[in-house]
Structure formats: structure tokens, C-alpha cells
Amino acid sequence: MTTIRLTVAQALVRFLAAQYTERDGTRQRLIGAMWGIFGHGNVAGIGQALVEYADLMPYHQGRNEQAMVHAAVGYARQSGRLSAHAVTTSIGPGATNLVTGAALATVNHLPVLLLPGDVFAARPADPVLQQLEVPYAGDVSVNDTLRPVSRYFDRITRPEALIPSALQAMRVLTDPVDTGAVTLALPQDVQAEAYDWPERFFAERVWTVRRPGADAAELTEAVRAVRAARRPLIIAGGGVHHSRAETALAEFAAATGIPVASTQAGKGSLRHDHPQDVGGIGHTGTATADALARTADLVIGVGTRYTDFTTASGTLFENPAVRFLNLNIAPFDGHKLAGLPLVADARSALGELTEALGMHGHRVAGEYVAEYTEAKGRWERTVDACFAAPDPAARPTQPQVLGALDALADESDIIVNAAGSLPGDLHRLWRARSADQYHLEYGYSCMGYEIPAALGVKLAAPERSVWALVGDGTYLMLPAEIVTAVQEGVAIKLVLLQNHGYASIGGLSEAVGAERFGTAYRYPAADGTYTGAPLPVDLAANAASLGMRVLRAGNVGELRAALGEARAADVPTCVYVETETSDTVSGAPPAQAWWDVPVAATATRPSAVKARELYERHVSTRRRHL
Length: 626
Ligand SMILES: Cc1ncc(C[n+]2csc(CCOP(=O)(O)OP(=O)(O)O)c2C)c(N)n1
Ligand SMILES: [Mg+2]
Known about the structure:
It is a single chain. The protein has 24 helices and 23 strands. The longest helix has 22 residues. α17 links the parallel β18 and β19. α3 runs parallel beside α5, α8 packs across α14 and α10 runs parallel beside α14. The chain is of the alpha/beta class and 626 residues long. The chain has 3 domains: 206 residues, Thiamin diphosphate (ThDP)-binding fold, Pyr/PP domains (Rossmann fold, 3-Layer(aba) Sandwich), CATH 3.40.50.970; 163 residues, TPP-binding domain (Rossmann fold); 157 residues, 3-Layer(aba) Sandwich (Rossmann fold). The chain is globular. The protein has a 6-stranded parallel beta sheet, sandwiched between helices. The protein binds thiamine diphosphate and magnesium ion (MG).
């Protein structure tokens, strides 16, 4: 057997550079690049290997470990989960900074390879700098915090253990059911150790991303359920995009006349102007989709996890006869809401369903089509009204900012968002013009995702206009990767909406009787609450100080001009806008369905007592689907 003598870190980098994915006849590199921040624990191991193999593994210099994972997640999603990034960190704080990003990747079923440094395997001088010691166990390190948020975890305590472990890691990254964060913790002494590796370990290896078809019995049941339904409704989830099943979904919808609502992850499955697209569903849904959900007798979930936002915390599907048909590649999700499972790849099974139903010539009734068509038209006018900004000299509301962007965008633009009041406004209002335009991370809804993720998206789609839409709170959470975008000349666009704090949580707080406590960025007033004057904080100057080109927009007219200029820019550009938030100006439409945030069961303050009364009324409408 021919062997090659390399360190563990060198072997890992060489191995990763030789892995490929294949689906539908296209092949690409599985690990497109590695992000890294160096310290002890990776500087001499992976760091040295990256210099040694600079021609094999592209490298990106990050500023914050969590943000590097966000960038990797953005890249993986834009790559259809066929290509991913690796992230290397030092031991201790560098490693634990990965935890939030890992959870985000795992929740959203998006592949990232995490390579945290770890304490010495041989333990010659415990504790090393930044090492956690626990008196009850010698084999625990801070990296164990990554176990519950990883879909695969291993610690490479001997060189040769890398061989089976690296292969398992690739299996999980490319498995459409299991994929998420994969962690290989690398003790720093082992990284630098030499070993005689079998040459074949470094041979090109192709991981086929499978598309399992439907089980015959499950398909028969599914066809029966669809044929029996009078008011069926499709919910398109993120699985539609992951499977690239948008065309198959459109064909199924066209063949049957069934309307298609979408979750945050599934929006864009049909174009907004497709006659059967009824928009977002659930707490942040459209009136059209939510009314259909209330009366549906069959809900066909395609690639959805049915989160509480989608089901309005178990209150949305009111029809006593409602049943669920769950097309999902993961049995775990396929069985939710006591539904009929159709465990398969979305594209494969939608094709099979269309074909099987075609034999019977099945279509919903004309009155049903007329009903949702009319309701869709009504919601269109709601969107028009929210987007309209007749006075160019006025300060824009948040929906008017979205309207200005909507007026400018074509299929090629991509918008990235995750947290704050924007996700709700976008889910209700945004007109998705292409399958991958609407990039909302709402599985973990993590403030700070947007800027680094936009960077990752742009790396996967360099020719597209990629917009990170961020609130002021989100901006302050994690702006660091702006510096990386500037350094690498990645011309992301940032729309920074200043409203002096947490508009979203402020509104929620008021609704649940918490009186906006701690949600505004203001000086303390005489009574100690943060209700004083706004703070003298200039986030536009902050973005400029990090190297971005910044365009300040004081009103609607300036906003339109600034967005146009930013769109054409070939350097990282920020449009900064202060939004109108006064109660007299109408913003977005109200929520069309409930969301369960438990309210104090006892309180002295009238606001909480009143909120609790309303809460109990909502709770009483909850159903268990059995
Ligand atoms: C990391 C993280 N911490 C806390 C939250 C809870 N949270 C959701 S939205 C939000 C406020 C967002 O503020 P901003 O970005 O200014 O948006 P706005 O609500 O003003 O639209 C908070 C604190 C979160 N989603 N993520
Ligand atoms: Mg804000």
C-alpha cells in the first residue's frame, strides 16, 4: 500500500479538497473553501496545512466565529446544499463561539463543517490556556457544547481515527435528511502529528445526493387523500427549495388547481404572480392563505417542519375534518400532526403524485379556484397600499422601504434576513420573483445572521445583487464581517433600518403585558425605564468606519435614489434609513393569526391582567390534530 506522510491537519485539508457532490448530473466540490480565525489550537495545525495547500483549499479570513458559520450557512443554502464551507477555530472561546452558528445550521438543515481546535489529547500539561477543567471527568472539553447542536460529532484523539471519522462527516453533510452542523474537534497536538496515510484516502470521492421516490403504499394513500379533498391547500416549506422541486410543484399545482401557501423557508416556491401562489401562511401569513388554512380539509405539507409560526401555535387549521399529508424526506417531519406520511424527496414524489393523479384527471372545483383567485387579488391591493409612498419628501415606513426595493428588484436580486420585524413584513408583503430570491433564516431567527450570510450567498452567486436587510439591533449584534466583505471585495449591499431598538419585541412586549420593558435603545428616564431621549449613536458612520460606502436616505425620494445607486455599486455599499414609526402612520397589515407567547397568569399591573384574558381566549381555540 502506498502511503504519504503528512500531519493530521495536512491530511484533512487534502482529503477535503478531493470530495465532490453529485445530483442530477452536476458535480461540484463539497467543501468549497475554509473560513478561519487562528489562535492556539489551530494556528500550527490547520493554519500550517492551509499554507502548505493554499492551491488546494481557498481560505476566507473571518472576524467572529459565529459569523463565519453564518457565512458558511448562507453559502450552503445558496449552493442548494451541494457545496459547503468548513470553519476552523482555536480552542476555548474560539470554539464555543461556534455554538450559535451550529444550532442555526442544524435547525435549518444546512451543511457546515466545523473544525474547532481542542485541548491536548496526550495531556502533557493540563490545563492549557483556555482549557475548561471539570473535577468529575477528564475527557470533557468546551467542545462538548457542540454535541447537541451537531448532526455528527467526533473528537480525533489519534491520527488514524481521522479516516473513518472524515468519511462519516462527509456522509452526514451530503445526506438530505441528516445534514446540518458536522463537528470534528481536533486536539491541537494531534493536528500537528505525522502519520503514514494510505494514498487512496486522498483520491477523488463523489457523494451522490439521493432523491428517494415514494413508497408504493404511501403513494396510494396520498392519491386517495388528494382525490377525496374538496378544499386542499399546499404548504411549501424549505424542503421544496432544498430539493429544487419548484418546477415539480408548479406542475402538480397546475394539474390539480390546488393553491400553494408557503412558510418563510418555502417562499418563492412559486413566483408571487403565479395564479396559485397565495403567499405566506401562519402568524405572519397573508389573509388569503390563512383563510384557506382555516377551512382546508387536506393540508399537503411539502418539506415543512410545521413550526408554531406556520400552524399559528396549533390554532390555524380549524376545519374539524382537516387531515395532513406530509411529503417530507425526513420521517420525523413526515409524521407530524398525525399526518399521512409520504417519505420521499420532494421533487421525486411530486412528480409521482402528478402522474398518479393525472390518470384520474383530478382537479379542484371551479368555485374553489374562483374563491382563492379573488382573495389573492384583494391581498395584492393590500401590498400595493403598503408599498405606496406618494410623498417623496416623507420619511418612509418599513413597508415603504420594502416597496422601494421591490420597485427596483428583478429575478436576480437576493434578499437576506432573519430577525426583527422585517421577517413578518417580508413574509406578508414581499413579491418573490425567483425561487432563490427570498433568503429568510427563520428556523433559528438569529439576529446577526444577515451580514455574514449575505457574504456567503454572494460567494456562491457572485453575479447576483445580494441585499442584507437589517434592523439597528441586528446590526449592532454582528457587523464585524463587513470588514471581510471590504477586504475580499465582495460587494454585498446592506439596507440598515434605524428605529432605535427592538420594534418587533417592543410590539410583542406590549401585547403580552410587559409594557415594552427593555426594548428601546433610549436613555433611562427619571423612573429608571429606558424611555428617555434616543441615543447619540450613528450606525451609518459606524458602517463607513468599517470600510463600507454609505448612502444616507432621509426621505422616500433619497431612499429610491440610494437603493438604485447601491444596486449598481461594485463595492460593499450600505443604504442607511431612519424609518417612520409613529402610531399615526400605517405600517404593515396586522397579524392574521395567533402566536403563542405565554402571558403572566397573575400580575398586579392592568396591562398584564388584560393581556392574560385575551391569551386565555386564544389558548382555548388550540387543537391537537390526532
Ligand atoms: C441572537 C438573538 N437574540 C435575541 C433575539 C430576540 N429578538 C428577536 S427580534 C429582536 C429585536 C431586533 O431588533 P432590530 O434588529 O432593531 O429589528 P426591529 O425589531 O427593530 O425591526 C430580538 C431581541 C434573536 N432573535 N436573536
Ligand atoms: Mg430596530
